[in-house]
Amino acid sequence: MANLILPDSNIYITAVRAGRDPFQQFLPGFDEREFAVCGMVMLEVCRGLREPTLLRRFRERFAVMIFLPTTSATWERATQLAWSLDRQGIVLPAPDLLIAACALQAGATVLTADAHFSAIPDLRVLDRLE
Cα–Cα distance between 23 and 84 in angstroms, integer? Predict the structure, then answer.
């Protein structure tokens, strides 16, 4: 799954705040890439949606994306990342560590505006789709 992209929550949230459909930005590369979602991204994004119709639309779109499960191995990887990075003085939010662990387990690239994801060893990160 070398072309699997896991958009971080901030990709969706930033687009919604700007009045844009975040899923439209995935269309140009849709033929070469696959897009995934994990439970933490769904939780972070959906909790902030105020309109029930918007929430329903997001849930429908998330339902057709590749779902990256949060297994006990994923939690263990997130825990190890947190412990290791903390010892280096790099303290990242727990939700972001879980998102990174999901991506690492699946071999996915994280699409994010958060620069701190680049501190996570072996994680492929994009700040925009090209």
Answer: 34
